[in-house]
UniProtKB/TrEMBL annotation:
The keyword Coiled coil appears for this protein: yes
Biased composition annotated in UniProt, kind: Polar residues: 1-11
Residues forming coiled coils: 367-394
Region (Disordered) residue spans: 1-53, 206-225, 265-284
InterPro entries to which the protein is assigned, alphabetical: Matrin/U1-like-C_Znf_C2H2 (IPR003604), Znf_C2H2_sf (IPR036236), Znf_C2H2_type (IPR013087)
Phylogenetic lineage: Eukaryota, Metazoa, Chordata, Craniata, Vertebrata
Listed GO MF terms: nucleic acid binding; zinc ion binding
Biased composition (Basic and acidic residues): 41-53
UniProt keyword list: Coiled coil
Domain U1-type per the UniProt entry, residue ranges: 291-325
Protein name per Swiss-Prot or TrEMBL: S phase cyclin A-associated protein in the endoplasmic reticulum
Gene3D superfamilies in UniProt: Classic Zinc Finger
Pfam families (alphabetical): zf-met
PANTHER family the record matches: S PHASE CYCLIN A-ASSOCIATED PROTEIN IN THE ENDOPLASMIC RETICULUM
Amino acid sequence: ARESWRQSNSWGDRVEEEPARPPGHGIHMHEKLSSPSRKRTIAESKKKHEEKQMKAQQLREKLREEKTLKLQKLMEREKDVRKWKEELLDQRRRMMEEKLLHAEFKREVQLQAIVKKAQEEEAKVNEIAFINTLEAQNKRHDVLNKLKEYEQRLNELQEERQRRQEEKQARDEAVQERKRALEAERQARVEELLLRRKEQEARIEQQRQEKEKAREDAARERARDREERLAALTAAQQEAMEELQKKIQLKHDESIRRHMEQIEQRKEKAAELSSGRHANTDYAPKLTPYERKKQCSLCNVMISSEVYLFSHIKGKKHQQAVRENSSIQGRELSDEEVEHLSLKKYIVDIVIESSVTVEPLKDGEEKQKIRKKAKKLKARMNSRAKEYESLMEAKSAVSDSPFKAKLQRLAKDLLKHLQMQDSCSLGSNKVPGLDRTLGEISRILEKENTADKIAFRAAGGLSALENVLQTVTAPTNLNAVSRVPFKSLCSAVNVYSLACSNCAENCTYVLFSNKITFLMDLLIHQFMVSVPDDHNATAGRSVNKQVFEDLTTGLLRITAVIFRCLISSFPDGNSHSTALKILQEVKSKSSQVEAFNSRVQDLISYVVNIGLVDKLCCCFLSVQGPVDENAKTASFLQGATAMLHGMCQLCVAVSGRSWNIFDNTRQDPTGLTAALQATDLVGVLHMLYCVLFHGTISDPNTASPKDSYAANTVQVAIQSLRFFNSFAVLDLPAFQSIVGAEGLSLAFRHIISSLLWYCSQHTCEGLLHEVIICVGYFTVNNTDNQLIVQSGRHPTVLQKLCQLPFQYFSDPRLIKVLFPSLIAACYNNPQNKIILEQEMSCVLLATFIQDFAQSSGQVDNQLSQQREKIFSSQDYLELSNRFPRQSWEEARQFFLKK
């Protein structure tokens, strides 16, 4: 209990609980309690002290004696040690003397051994000399013996060879006898096998007929069941579609309300932004090249225009580099601070441009190789054309045209007008006759009767027109007046275009007879005159504006018409083209498709090697403003982009792969893809940006998308986007890398945003569909490009796609256009999916994918039967051609996930 009390109470508590004592209490108690034994007298104490001193004296004496004894023992031990050390030294001295004596003995023995060894070495040398002499004698004896053996063996071999020859003759006679016997047996077996095979074939034919009959009965039964299931499925889908349209209408009304609220917010924000703050990528910057180029000193990147400037500043690499090289008191810089620091510190003007001097020798060798290749291609095409012309002369074309005789007369008149020309140019009285003849031909061909066009070609009309146009490339001074007036040349080009328009026979003839090469040469001649062949032309500043005249535009239009017609009549197994049939009858080893492909590949390779793509790039780069009021420039741009579009489609057709753009086996022997990559899509994106945005960044009102574009501008945009889409089909990774690069990605975003804004204000379904498809190709399986469509001013490109009219979310035909692009832009991108969910339900996209997956299995058999018809009008809208089929299920799960 006391122990527990101690643990429960502290030391202070216990001290305080003790009762207080009076002063002096301790001394009093000590005296009271002391025992009587402790109280001694002085005498007793003294006696006691003396006894203690006596004991101590005795103890000291005893210790002294012990110490003396120890010292005596120590002295004796010291003497013993000294004696032992002296003995040890004597012993070492004796051992050293013995060792010296032994060493002397060993030295004598060693010397004797050396003398003995020298004597033995001398004896060995004598022995070796004797042995060598003996060996030489033995070798000579062995050689003589071997010679005798060789002679004896040769004689034996000769006898053996003669004996084997006799045996071989005997065996050959026996073999011939056995062969004759075996041949007789084989003939007997062959006759027996033939008889058995005939019986087996008859039996198999009977079984095949029975199986075919059973298969037909089963197919009829399956077809009846399929029709019943399809009818039930259609009814269910119709009911589900009606319910879905009701839900979509409700969501669309809510979206319109939100859209109006956002518009009000944007108007307020636009009023704030117009107050004059620093420029950004929300407004379209200028793509015009700087007079003095700039450079990012941090990234060592050349900057040629404002578009490239803002695109580079907003790039991830540049912003990361700026943040790594600069910091404010240890914190990370914001985007505005990075932009301000970049413009102030890192973007500098280049005072002296460090132009990389190209080695003249290397450049000349490269151009010489290209010219040689072009000459080889032209020679090969000319040889094929001569063979084809000889075949065509053997079989004259049959035409039921009512104007056949008149067209023959007019074709002869064309040649007559050229033959009656003066030495320098046509006489003044001959020009109206030539124009009158061309006008009559044009009026006949404008009726779009295919028989008339075939009759004109059979009468030699195309060759006559070629002779007229050939006066342009006559070897005269470039500044001299042509022998045929410019107006007549334009009329001839118009007639040529009418003769080939929607006429597969004439277009095939132009291709196989190599007249298309003459048109390409004429085009490159026109460009050589107007577009200088130097490095400054790449900027488009030195292009002569005469290149945009009607003659060049007409030639581009002819080429585009021929390409479009060749694509629409791409040869398949059921082709009825007379030109192809004639070629196939003679060349049985090569099919129609192979003959067509080889000629198209040679043509495209020739176009690339003569530099036509580079000249077109210079022309596109020279366009720095609007074309609303310039109809000639607009027509030129339409014709050029249409020709590029046709070249890309032909290249896809002859590449030997399907329309599936996700096929990794991309082979382009023509070199067209490399040429388009090297020129950044021939500068078409640059041209389209300058045409649509010809204001400046300092004036947001003019730099913003216009409320309306002229018809010429809209057509240029449509043709340009068709070219982009066809190149994406040709090589999707190359298209995404070019358009997604710095500078071009910003320009592409502004172009798409502007065209979507225009389509929201005006009805232009063709343009809108091309824009939607282009956005899908731009973003499919590309995370960086997906970020581009959701950046910029609101509404972004992705938001504008989500805010399209209600028909694009309810009409199956329009859903087929829009939904694949939305899937491509949002797949595996949570940020884009969030933006999409603000405007519509992702379940619609998942349902769309599921419906396509179910229906694709039913039509696979039909598509497999039509593999050769590549360029169907609706093929490019299919989901499988705009989003990889292997990702359909993952995409459906992604859009269903909350």
